[in-house]
Design brief:
By secondary structure, this protein is of the alpha/beta class. The protein has one domain: 2-Layer Sandwich (Nucleotidyltransferase, domain 5). Helix content is 41%, strand content 17%. The protein is built from nine helices and five strands. The protein has a five-stranded mixed beta sheet, sandwiched between helices. Strand 4 (89-92), helix 4 (95-108) and strand 5 form a beta-alpha-beta unit.
Length: 206
């Protein structure tokens, strides 16, 4: 089967910081389900982190404590996201960061994604398909591919941008005969253990 025909769930989280093991938490999550080159469904929620949101985080994502005060908590939101993802391939830009947060928070209330859930990283794709770029931050990558950038650092905006970038690069993969599912995942998938949190700097994420 070609990757173009597979169901891919592109998702993104906004957080209070970089390290869930140190108490940082998800404050916003968004996902889009893509099949056949089109968005067929989407998921969105603010998340009450049950902790203060640092000013530094708000400066980046514009999410305030007032905005999440009445939002559902992660134990209510994330099981719905698991159902949304179920059976699909997951994708994200610098996917290890988002998957690290997702899986850490799921573990806090005894839930997890299936270990064999395939995960594609558009950052890894870009480095493989566009090795000459001077930056792989999402906005720069998008512009390099001719994708318009209007807003970043909100979950749904970043998902929309990642979907556009992913679809452009899937076309490039097809031109290189790397678009059957097995080849695509072996080249651009996140290596196991899939959900190990990799500590990364803020600069490398965007």
């Amino acid at each position: 089967m070609k990757i173009h025909s597979a169901e891919i769930v592109v998702f993104d989280v906004e957080t209070t910081g970089l390290f869930p093991q140190d108490g940082d938490r998800i404050v916003e999550i968004a996902a889009m389900k893509v099949k056949g080159g089109k968005v067929v469904d989407q998921f969105y929620s603010l998340v009450n982190p049950k902790r203060p949101i640092p000013a530094e985080a708000t400066q980046i994502n514009q999410i305030t404590e007032d905005m999440v005060a009445d939002a559902p908590t992660a134990d209510a939101v994330l099981p719905r996201l698991i159902d949304f993802i179920s059976g699909g391939c997951v994708a994200g830009h610098n996917a290890r960061f988002d998957m690290g947060f997702l899986c850490y928070e799921l573990s806090l209330f005894g839930r997890r994604l299936k270990d064999d859930t395939p995960v594609v990283d558009t950052l890894k794709m870009a480095k493989g398909l566009l090795p000459y770029l001077s930056s792989y931050k999402l906005p720069y990558l998008a512009r390099s591919l001719g994708v318009s950038v209007t807003r970043t650092h909100r979950a749904m905006a970043d998902v929309e941008l990642t979907v556009a970038v992913l679809l452009r690069m899937m076309e490039m993969a097809a031109d290189k005969n790397a678009d059957d599912v097995g080849t695509f995942l072996s080249r651009f998938g996140v290596e196991k253990p899939l959900f190990k949190l990799v500590q990364v700097s803020q600069d490398s994420l965007f």
